[in-house]
Amino acid sequence: MKRSDSKNSLSTLQSQKLLCDLRTRFETHKQRHLNLTWANLEAKLNSNPDKLWSLHQMDQTGGEPDVVSYDEKTDEFVFMDCSPESPKGRVSVCYDNEGLESRKEHKPKTSAIEMANRMGIELLSEGQYRELQKLGEFDLKTSSWVQTPVGIRKLGGALFGDRRFGQVFIYHNGAQSYYSSRAFRGSLRV
């Protein structure tokens, strides 16, 4: 994952607003992060302004990021996009730049991988996507690109997931495809 540049920083007002929004989301959706406290999370966020910038990017594109777990081994909080549907500010993107370049016409502006790199986040893996779905019902009307294994990608494919009929499904599509109802969900470790 490409880290956000040091020039990517938030103003004091932007940081305060984001922290307020994150705290509200944290307190509203306690079932996503049982046994975690806001004070510990806030201290970690305040000491990582580059991560705060990435969370701001997630929020500005409609991801509604929220903490979903804590990794004791690395002392990191794990955030994921928790918007009910795939983030609106990230729709109509191919899976990666190779898929984007393979399009002969009607190319979208960017790819999911490139956009995630610019934001300083990673696409959810299939496992992370399934874990997220245990915390609520996501992508009932949309779908989200997920990290694709190299073998599938070498053959031109890419994976995406959604929830239909009360089940989580992982499908395949050409990496060059894009749809107005497909974006990607990201994760960030702080």
Given as residue ranges, the uncertain stretches (5+ residues, pLDDT < 50) are 1-6
- Kindly identify the CATH topology of the largest domain: Mannose-Binding Protein A, Chain A
SSE arrangement, N to C: HHHEEHHEHEHEEEE
What count of helical segments does DSSP give? 7
Q: Biggest sheet: strands, sense, closure?
A: 4 strands, antiparallel
Oligomeric status = single chain
For the record, the count of structural domains works out to: 2
Strand order of the largest sheet: 1-2-8-3
**What's the overall geometry?**
globular
End-to-end distance? 14 Å
Kindly describe this structure.
The protein is an alpha+beta fold and 190 residues long. The chain has two domains: 12-81, no CATH class; 88-189, Mannose-Binding Protein A, Chain A. The chain has helices at residues 12-28, 38-46, 49-60, 97-102, 112-119, 126-133, 150-154; strands spanning 65-71, 76-81, 122-123, 143-146, 157-164, 167-174, 182-184, 186-189. 39% of the residues are buried.
